[in-house]
Q: What sequence folds into this?
């Protein structure tokens, strides 16, 4: 049986989410209907909304359910444009779900550099916003709360303060952090934040945009008046119920992050001890507990993924794109790691279902595959 170590791509469904989805699926009723089953469905929907809002320190009315993190990011960028943003600044390592709608928005886009630690360059932002003061053009600044490849947690509250003080709009892609580490929407001062259920043990195809009360959102998907006219279409109620249950379960056990971090640290200790020429990225900065980003120059990412798959482990090259092809890691590129590292990046991501034995087994299989893939001289770096 495959050992699944790819929680940042999609976490296994939590039992709590499955139970909540089963209940919602077996009840009938459209949340927009006025009869009793409709009202019961509406009550289930609003309970889920309140749960998610309170776990993210947002107001229930600020939560707009979407088909996932990608749609939420698209909606935020469209809303910022409608609110007068005339230029977008986003971090160099943002996910395609931010960079593609930013590029398609027709607005000029500037790239916010990232330091070698995997953290965005805050001095750059401060200088850039000071320069903007004289121009008067409204900006949208976008920063992910935690990076999908390295797990490095970004200083969103500090960035939010600077962006707000300068009178601009701030968007946080919180898809990877939600349910894995604390995310405080109110404290981030963000106008918008994107969430996705399947990264924390909920189902795929459901997420939310949190839009602060001072940030208007006009629907991009037009039709009925669902989600207070901000996103038309009958809500995916079973998915939303599963999303709320997963997030609640993820954040209810205060000891879970430390347990998962210990598993990740064991893997990294095994790989560093063995002097296998493996570099671990982002370890000097605060990280999500379960993410480990490795590189092994000379051993291409896609070859590593296939070798580990054959050995019975599911892991990703830095980021998988939808076609299933492997690209060189743009995150390591942004960190200035150089081509040899960016082409040999591997992401191992643990989560709620992971065990210490899995980390041990992966480390042994990885070192074995590496020693067979490379000549001895290259391994003993
Ligand atoms: N943002 C980040 C940082 C992600 O890692 C992902 C998924 O990989 C997304 C957005 C897209 O989320 P979804 O798969 O729910 O569309």
A:
């Amino acid at each position: 049986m495959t050992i699944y170590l790819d929680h940042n791509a999609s976490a296994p469904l939590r039992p709590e989410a499955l139970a909540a989805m089963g209940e919602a699926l077996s009840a009938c009723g459209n949340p927009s209907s006025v009869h009793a089953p409709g009202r019961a469905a509406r009550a289930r929907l609003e309970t889920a909304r309140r749960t998610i809002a309170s776990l993210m320190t947002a107001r229930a009315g600020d939560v707009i359910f979407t088909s996932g993190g990608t749609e939420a990011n698209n909606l935020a960028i469209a809303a910022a444009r409608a609110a007068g943003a005339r230029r977008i600044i986003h971090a160099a390592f943002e996910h395609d779900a931010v960079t593609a709608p930013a590029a398609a928005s027709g607005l000029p886009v500037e790239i916010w550099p990232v330091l070698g630690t995997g953290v965005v360059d805050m001095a750059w932002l401060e200088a850039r916003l000071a320069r903007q003061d004289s121009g008067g053009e409204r900006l949208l600044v976008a920063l992910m709360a935690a990076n999908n490849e390295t797990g490095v947690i970004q200083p969103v509250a500090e960035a939010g303060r600077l962006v707000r003080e300068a009178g601009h709009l701030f968007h946080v892609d919180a898809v990877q952090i939600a349910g894995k580490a604390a995310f405080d929407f109110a404290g981030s001062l963000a106008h918008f934040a994107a969430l996705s259920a399947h990264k924390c043990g909920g189902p795929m195809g459901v997420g939310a945009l949190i839009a602060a009360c001072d940030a208007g959102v006009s629907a991009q998907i037009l039709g009925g008046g669902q989600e207070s006219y901000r996103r038309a279409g009958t809500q995916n109620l079973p998915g939303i119920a599963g999303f709320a249950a997963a997030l609640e379960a993820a954040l209810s056990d205060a000891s879970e992050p430390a347990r998962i971090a210990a598993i990740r640290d064991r893997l990294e200790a095994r790989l560093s001890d063995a002097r296998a020429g493996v570099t671990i990225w982002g370890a000097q900065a605060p990280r999500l507990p379960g993410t480990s980003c490795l590189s092994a120059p000379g051993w291409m990412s896609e070859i590593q993924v296939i070798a580990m798959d054959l050995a019975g482990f599911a892991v990703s090259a830095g980021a998988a794109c939808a076609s299933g092809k492997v690209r060189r890691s743009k995150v390591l590129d942004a960190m200035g790691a150089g081509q040899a590292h960016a082409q040999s990046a591997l992401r191992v991501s643990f989560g709620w279902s992971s065990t210490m034995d899995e980390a041990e087994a992966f480390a042994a299989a990885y070192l074995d595959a590496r020693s067979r893939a490379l000549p001895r001289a290259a391994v003993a770096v």
